[in-house]
Structures are given as C-alpha cells and as structure tokens.
Specification:
Layout (H helix, E strand, L loop, with lengths): L2 H15 L9 H6 L2 E2 L6 E2 L4 H10 L10 H24 L5 H11 L7 E4 L5 E5 L5 H17 L1 H4 L2 E3 L8 E3 L12 H19 L7
Helix pairs in contact: 4-5, 4-6, 5-6
C-alpha cells in the first residue's frame, strides 16, 4: 500500500471517528455519544461552536440567538459527563457520583417551553416545533430525557454498550428479539467481525503476522 493511499485511509477513519452520532436512541444518549472511543482514546466530537450548532440541529433543538454558545458548550460538556456517569453506573452495576445525580436533578427543575404545533399550507397539522431555547431550557430538556430514561425499568433494560472494545457507545436497543451487540452493524459490527477474521487467519498461518 502506497503512502498516499495509507494517508487517505487515515483521513477517512479520522473523519468517521469525529462524525456526530444521532442513532443512540434519545437526545441524552446522543449527547453521551459526542465522545467517541471513550474507554481507549476519547475523541471529542463537539469541541467548538460549529460542532455544537450541528449537534443541536441533529437532535432537533433550536437555541435562542441571544444565547452565549460558548457557555452552553461548557454546560453541555458538564451535563454529558454526569449523564455518562449515571448511565455507565447502571450498565456496570456501580453507583454514580452524588454530584452527577444532583446536577441532573438541578437542571431538570427548569420548565422548558411547551412545543408548538405547526400546520401546512392546507391548514393540516404538519409538525411540532420548540421556540428558540435558552441555555437553562435546553439543558433541562436533556436532563429530563436522561432522568426519564434511567428511571423507567423497561427503558433502561434496553440500554446497551457497543461490543466493540474501540467504541463502547451506549445506545437504546429497540430491536425485537435478539439483543443488538453493536451500536451499528455497518460501523462496528462489520469491522469487529473483519478484525476477528484476520486474527483467526493469522493464528492459523493463513496471513503473515506483519
């Protein structure tokens, strides 16, 4: 493989690792997923204002134009750490830090604005929208989502952690029947199976070790 091809592959892999994920199942889990490869080499996916805007758009939240986006970004990072602590605590059977629980409850006390129903050109119901959110209201929506999820026995039983050691993304398994092992078959499922296949071939001597 030439150096140029190798560099191209590295660029594509890096770009994929920094992609925002909106398939975790809920807004709060999508927030947790804004750190990739958390257990091995954490990758920040919302490290600046542009990425913050992209994430808010992806989860369907509109921020009020007068809000301090830098402050919102810092607050979301803090909320993300607490949400991960609580969720991972459930999955790994250990108690979350008291500060994580306290902050979630504190943020959830703010009443977010009520959604507004929109109609189309024919006057028929078309979509619901939420007015531009203040920072406290946006944080409240995410905190409430996490509290609702983790306090619902049926929902939290659907929580999974991706089987890929390089990923470990936490997601809500909506599949019927056999539980999903990976956050995405196209991403982690196929790559994990391919890696196991290569390892097996190396052990059996079908592939060179180098």
């Amino acid at each position: 493989m030439t150096e140029g091809v190798q560099e191209g592959r590295r660029t594509r892999v890096t770009a994929q690792l920094r992609e925002l994920r909106f398939d975790a199942g809920t807004p709060s889990l999508n927030l947790i997923a804004t750190i990739g490869r958390r257990p091995s080499a954490p990758i920040e996916r919302i490290g600046d204002i542009d990425r913050l805007r992209a994430w808010c758009e992806g989860v369907g939240l509109t921020v009020h134009p007068d809000e301090d986006l830098a402050a919102l970004l810092d607050a979301l990072h803090e909320l993300r750490a607490c949400a991960y602590d609580v969720t991972a605590g459930y999955l790994h059977r250990h108690a979350p830090q008291e500060e994580s629980v306290r902050l979630l409850n504190q943020l959830a006390r703010v009443n977010p604005p009520a959604p507004q129903l929109k109609t189309d050109a024919d006057g028929l119901p078309a979509a619901a929208s939420t007015p531009g959110l203040s920072t406290p209201a946006l944080l409240s929506l995410i905190a409430r989502d996490m509290i609702t999820l983790i306090s619902d026995p049926k929902q939290r039983q659907k929580l999974r952690e991706c089987d890929s050691e390089l990923c470990r993304m936490i997601y809500l398994d909506a599949a019927q029947g056999r539980p999903r092992k990976w956050c995405s078959m196209q991403r982690c499922g196929n790559s994990t199976k391919a890696a196991r296949h290569r390892h097996h071939r190396q052990k059996t001597g079908d592939l060179p070790l180098a």
